[in-house]
Amino acid sequence: MAREPEMPLEALFGFTGIAALVTLKRDGRPQISNIVYYYDPLERTFSVSITDGRAKTRNMRRDPRVSLFADAAEGWSYAVAEGNAELSEVAADPHDTTVEQLVALYRAVQGEHPDWEEFRAAMVAERRLLLRVRVERFYGIAR
């Protein structure tokens, strides 16, 4: 059973939503991507479906330090979650561990899929993997 996030900064993320994921380019500058996530407040962990071969994935393999940014609708409150990227294996079979994790993530974010076999095949074809970020620190402003 999920608990409500206790700290105001953590609560700005909610259980699911869109956040900006910040990774570090080779030259140290930030690379920023909007992502859809699921947040587990008991584990203090974000889960995200990502694609192999994208800039953010290459960046995290080289340097696992990441940040996630979310803001409130009013624009003044914001929260940043810092942690290290943990990447699963790339989906290689419709019933491998990675695809099972991606199915669980989809259910947490969207609910049931109309065709799970199609979803599973797409995860392999798109070379998807699961990103997990265990939060080490939150900072920001909650008004």
TrEMBL record:
Enzyme Commission code(s) on record: 1.4.3.5
Keywords for this protein: Oxidoreductase
Pyridoxamine 5'-phosphate oxidase N-terminal domain boundaries: 18-140
Cited SUPFAM superfamilies: FMN-binding split barrel
UniProt keyword Oxidoreductase present: yes
Top-level taxon: Bacteria
Top class in the EC scheme: oxidoreductase
Pfam families attached to this UniProt entry: PNPOx_N
One Gene Ontology term, aspect cellular component: cytosol
The keyword Oxidoreductase appears for this protein: yes
Molecular-function annotations in GO: coenzyme F420 binding; oxidoreductase activity, acting on the CH-CH group of donors; pyridoxamine phosphate oxidase activity
InterPro entries, per database record: F420-binding_dom_put, F420H2_bilvrd_red/Heme_oxyg, Pyridox_Oxase_N, Split_barrel_FMN-bd
Cited NCBIfam families: Rv1155_F420
Protein name: Fmn flavoprotein
